[in-house]
Specification:
The chain has 6 helices and no strands. With 150 residues, the protein is mainly alpha-helical. The longest helix is centred in the first third of the chain and has 31 residues, at 2-32. 18% of the residues are buried. One of its GO terms (molecular function) is iron ion binding.
Length: 150
């Protein structure tokens, strides 16, 4: 039974991270930490790394701490919360940096309806170059209107 609860904790944490990501993106990245996120909205950013990449570190710190304290002194729920955050971070990297922005050319010819809608929603987000008046701040949940446009 404990294994099932650990799995549920990991999955629930992954799901909650979409809400955390939406709120962080809207109120922090497009708010007081715009200074780190602004370069991400520049078209054809010329460098390998962006200031925006600092958010990977910012999100990794709680995950690492939870993983550490989740095995010390013995395995506990904190580990599985950290694991859920880690899995979301991996998904974020694959979806946002690889699939959407194609910083790595691994998945170039995607025809999946959901993934195309996801890319369209993110493109709309980047259409606005400034910090205000944005939309589509999440990563995995896509408004229905973007499915109709594919």
């Amino acid at each position: 039974m404990e294994v099932v609860l650990y799995i549920l904790t990991t999955v629930l944490t992954f799901i909650v991270m979409e809400v955390v990501t939406w709120c962080t993106h809207k109120f922090v990245m497009h708010g007081f930490l715009w200074v780190l996120h602004a370069d991400h909205h520049e078209p054809k950013y010329p460098h390998v790394f962006e200031k925006n990449d600092a958010f990977f570190v910012i999100f990794a710190i709680p995950s690492i701490l939870l993983l550490y304290f989740g095995i010390s002194p013995e395995l506990n729920y904190l580990f599985f919360i950290g694991l859920g955050i880690l899995f979301y971070g991996i998904a974020y990297f694959l979806v946002h940096d690889v699939l959407i922005h194609q910083r790595f050319k691994w998945f170039k010819n995607i025809k999946n309806r959901y993934l195309l809608a996801l890319r369209k929603a993110h493109k709309i987000h980047h259409k606005n170059m400034g910090k205000e008046d944005g939309e589509c701040f999440g990563m995995l949940l896509v408004p229905k209107k973007y499915f109709r446009q594919n």
